[in-house]
């Protein structure tokens, strides 16, 4: 696993993630032979829980978490919030840095915070970020304007505390921010088709009612979530899913590990970072063995945690070279 481990044998520090722009325009740099391949047959890197880099010790516990956890956060905030935080953060690069690094699937989990304005939409993963959804979507739009031949898949998910009125407000924001960049749902397009139309955004939306009302929204992209602590078990799950046959359109294979209560109790000084980093070589080896394409066992989007600490993004992009030999 060249480049993943330092000379001392330790893994790269998350405080100084590897962040280069070498993949900032990887889609337009693909072999022209691949410009006519539908997006769901390409290999696309994604980030799991994209916005958790915005969490910190001042982040409030989400309203939908258990009453006990919310009570503990009020009574013992200096203990509870840091404990939850270390198991909630999955990314350290900002959304712009992730896009620069080559990520093209963004996992955006949205919640309405009761505190603040009536339309106070933030990102969530147990805790709520201070980052506003509108501001982040605008940041993504501005990045796309500077990279006119790159395409992103935005997965708006979870929607904790969202009413129909808030869904309509969010969809209006999406339309206003991205405008003609949005690709209406239909057959999954190729890059050449998207470039011809000036479209750069496929927006997956996890609320069926909103999707039925707005042609600009795509149904939720399936996410293979293994819910496993050990990488071996996660890979077994992913291989089982592959053996069942791939979905018909875009889909995500998540190589993200997930803690459980037993693991947390046995590792009181642990964190998601400490659990994940030693497993990256094993998970990356699985990634390099995958193949995109239309076959029943082919992969499409592959999403992971802590983007930038290893070669994950480049490894996923490089899988597209296997299509040239088909």
From TrEMBL:
<feature type="domain" description="Phosphatidylinositol-specific phospholipase C X">
    <location>
        <begin position="33"/>
        <end position="206"/>
    </location>
</feature>
<protein>
    <submittedName>
        <fullName>Phosphatidylinositol specific phospholipase C X domain containing 1</fullName>
    </submittedName>
</protein>
<dbReference type="GO" id="GO:0008081">
    <property type="term" value="F:phosphoric diester hydrolase activity"/>
</dbReference>
<dbReference type="GO" id="GO:0006629">
    <property type="term" value="P:lipid metabolic process"/>
</dbReference>
<dbReference type="InterPro" id="IPR051057">
    <property type="entry name" value="PI-PLC_domain"/>
</dbReference>
<dbReference type="InterPro" id="IPR017946">
    <property type="entry name" value="PLC-like_Pdiesterase_TIM-brl"/>
</dbReference>
<dbReference type="Pfam" id="PF26146">
    <property type="entry name" value="PI-PLC_X"/>
</dbReference>
<dbReference type="InterPro" id="IPR000909">
    <property type="entry name" value="PLipase_C_PInositol-sp_X_dom"/>
</dbReference>
<dbReference type="InterPro" id="IPR042158">
    <property type="entry name" value="PLCXD1/2/3"/>
</dbReference>
């Amino acid at each position: 696993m060249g480049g993943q481990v330092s000379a001392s044998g330790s893994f790269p520090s998350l405080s100084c993630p590897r962040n280069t722009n070498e993949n900032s325009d990887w889609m337009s740099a693909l072999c022209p032979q691949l410009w006519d391949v539908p997006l769901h047959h390409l290999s696309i890197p994604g980030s799991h829980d994209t916005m958790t880099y915005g969490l910190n010790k001042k982040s409030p516990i989400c309203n939908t978490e258990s009453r006990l956890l919310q009570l503990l956060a009020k009574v013992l905030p200096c203990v509870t919030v840091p404990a939850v935080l270390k198991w909630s953060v999955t990314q350290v690069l900002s959304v712009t840095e992730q896009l620069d690094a080559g990520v093209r699937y963004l996992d955006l989990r949205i919640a309405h915070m009761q505190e603040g304005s009536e339309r106070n939409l933030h990102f969530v993963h147990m805790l709520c970020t201070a980052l506003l959804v509108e501001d982040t979507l605008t940041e993504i739009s501005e990045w796309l304007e500077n990279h006119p031949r790159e395409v992103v898949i935005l997965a708006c998910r979870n929607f904790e505390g969202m009413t129909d009125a808030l869904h309509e407000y969010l969809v209006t924001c999406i339309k206003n921010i991205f405008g003609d960049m949005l690709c209406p749902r239909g057959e999954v397009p190729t890059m050449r088709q998207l470039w011809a139309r000036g479209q750069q955004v496929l927006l997956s939306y996890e609320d069926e009612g909103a999707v039925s009302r707005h042609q600009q929204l795509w149904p939720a992209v399936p996410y293979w979530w293994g819910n496993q602590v050990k990488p071996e078990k996660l890979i077994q799950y992913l291989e089982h899913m592959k053996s069942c046959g791939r979905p018909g359109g875009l889909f995500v294979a998540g190589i993200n590990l997930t803690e459980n209560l037993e693991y947390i109790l046995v590792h009181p000084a642990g964190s998601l970072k400490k659990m994940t980093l030693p497993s990256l070589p094993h998970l990356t080896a699985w990634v390099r063995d995958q193949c995109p394409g239309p076959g029943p066992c082919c992969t499409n989007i592959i999403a992971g945690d802590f983007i930038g600490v290893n070669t994950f993004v480049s490894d996923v992009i490089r899988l597209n070279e296997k299509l040239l030999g088909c």
